[in-house]
Design a protein that fits this description.
This protein is an alpha/beta fold. Helices cover 46% and strands 17% of the residues. The longest helix is centred in the middle third of the chain and has 18 residues.
Length: 270
């Protein structure tokens, strides 16, 4: 048994890197659905079906606990999966929860009435599907009051990152930040709501300017998973083998992943 990490492509490797560093004794199996990436332009039904298929493949690998290291899948599919699809003895967790906890300074299980929080003006950068789901705004409103969220769908950024075109990715990030700043002049915080975006974090920071607190998910997810496994050690599992699987062409994905993390990563066919 191991802990599974699922993503539509390569973006979840930023999460893998963080959780592997925080939990070196835990074996992880990573599955990238590169054959169907990006998810950010798909409809909710399609995202649900693809995500369920990926999670089932990780269950076949002995991963009773699977992390959706994809904001689009977390936003568009996770609630439906947890309410009507995930069987007893399995767990599927998303990457939104640690982010909401950090922003609202309260635990997910705290169901007390919404209250004032420190940050009032939040810029959200995410895929078109994540923005359309309004999942972030919904969960934030359940826990905090008086927070203004301006969301920017960042079309094209994931595709450029997956293709290794850093020049295009940087240009798109600057364009999307400029578009948001025309609508929200002085955000206090910015959410990088896609696990691909940490690779572009310096560009986001430079385009946003000083004084904007940037929330990037990988470290938050790693800390949250470490706490979760400390409380539920049964999901840690006895496995020992780290694997990287892809629905795409393994050699091509391995090359892209190696460029992505700047160290050798070898994928097998899922």
């Amino acid at each position: 048994m191991a802990v599974g990490i699922f993503d539509s492509g390569l973006g979840g490797l930023t999460v893998y890197d963080a959780v592997a560093a925080a939990l070196p004794e835990v074996p992880f199996v990573y599955l990238g659905d590169n054959a169907h990436a990006p998810y950010g332009v798909r409809d909710a039904g399609d995202i649900f079906d693809l995500t369920c298929a990926g999670v089932e493949r990780l269950w076949d690998e002995g991963c009773d606990l699977v992390i959706l290291a994809c904001n689009t899948a977390s936003a568009a599919a996770l609630r439906r999966m947890q309410e009507s699809w995930v069987p007893e003895g399995k767990r599927v967790l998303g990457v939104f929860v640690p982010l909401i906890e950090a922003l609202t300074e309260r635990q997910w299980g705290d169901n007390s009435p919404p209250r004032e929080v420190r940050v009032k003006h939040v810029a959200l950068f995410a895929t078109p599907a994540t923005v359309a789901s309004r999942a972030f705004q919904r969960e934030l409103a359940f826990r905090a009051i008086g927070v203004d969220v301006e969301a920017q769908p960042c079309g094209g950024v994931v595709d450029a990152i997956e293709e290794g075109d850093e020049i295009l990715a940087e240009a798109l990030v600057r364009s999307h930040v400029e578009a948001l700043l025309r609508r929200m002049l002085k955000p206090e915080a910015a959410i990088l709501g896609c696990t691909h975006y940490p690779l572009m974090e310096p560009i986001f920071r430079a385009a946003l300017g000083p004084g904007v607190e940037v929330y990037s998910q990988a470290a938050l997810v790693a800390a949250s998973l470490k706490d979760y496994l400390a409380r539920r050690p049964g999901f840690r599992g006895p496995g020992s083998r780290v694997r990287f699987l892809t629905t795409g062409e393994p050699a091509r994905v391995s090359t892209k992943a190696t460029q992505f993390l700047r160290r050798k990563i070898a994928f097998d066919a899922a």
